[in-house]
Amino acid sequence: MQSLRILSRSLAHHSVKKSSIFPEKELSPKWVYQNRRTLILEPTSSQSVNLHRLSGSDSGIVEVSLHRPEAKNAIGNDLLRGLKHTLEAISKDSSANVMLLLSSVPKVFCAGADLKERMALTASEIHSYVNSLRSTFSFIEILPIPTIAVIEGAALGGGLEMALSCDIRICGEKAIMGLPETGLAIIPGAGGTQRLPRLVGRAKAKELIYTGRRIDGVAAMSLGLVNYCVPAGEAHTKALEIAREINEKGPLAIRMAKKAINDGLEVDLVSAMTVEEECYVQLLDTKDRLEGLAAFAEKRKPKYNGE
């Protein structure tokens, strides 16, 4: 896919462009109304990934759910293809304000790579697969909207690496997380060796990766691996609460805030201040900024349209 092919160039590019707020192409899906809250269930190129768009006051919140119960959501080629397709759709949709990444399979988020499929691959094919996995997770990281991983049950190997690529992680207290790759005589290859130490610190990340140790939700919270640890079964409720808070804010401002933070952290502080200025300037001539000021003056809730 074109967006994934140009990923490395996008990650290195720090200037703010108008297209980063206003996608050039709008999606025209055939919407199927499901119920009052969930507006659509869009077909993807895979039966293992579903895209839900919420409606009413939750319009702007999208949910990407993994559904491969027979393999505990292990990431095989079909699931990976469906995930790419879904992310492409979200990246081009200016009406999407925040994304939840979750599992529809009880007691599991994602068990990691599909080792049964991998056993039939050559070393070259495995290399290609891991590169595709890495670029897909990096694409999650650079999506213009906030992303929230909802973790209930196991998030192991590539499953945890997928969650690490999200902006925010929320887990149930019985969730199990870990990077067990060294036990298979390999290393985490889809971002785990890089994103984990940036979250929990070098020493703790080394310990977890060297030992392949699995930790529960409470331990993950104490390490700073997740933003919230809630009672088992309540992670989705907490994630939706946070998504609703984000969804009330100016959508263009949220996109620029994410870009300023992500791009700014990749450069020195002086350059980062320039990144922030460029992102701020993008918002000065928007209708949403004027609406925010008017709502403040009139003591009412603002109505943002992403313009």
Distance between the amino and carboxyl termini: 28 Å
Q: What's the pLDDT, averaged over the residues?
A: 86
Succession of helices and strands: HHEEEHEEHHEEHEEHHEHEHHHH
| Assembly state of the chains shown | single chain
Largest sheet: 7 strands, mixed
Share of helix among residues?
40-55%
Structural class per helix/strand content? alpha/beta
How is this structure best described in words?
With 307 residues, the chain is of the alpha/beta class. Helices cover 44% and strands 16% of the residues. The strands form two sheets. A seven-stranded mixed sheet has the order 1-2-3-4-6-8-11, sandwiched between helices. A four-stranded mixed sheet has the order 5-7-9-10. Helix 3 links the parallel strand 3 and strand 4. Helix 3 packs parallel to helix 5. The longest helix is centred in the middle third of the chain and has 20 residues. The radius of gyration is 19 Å and the shape is globular. The N terminus is likely disordered.
Offer a few descriptive terms.
single chain; alpha/beta; seven-stranded mixed sheet; four-stranded mixed sheet; 13 helices; 44% helix; disordered N terminus
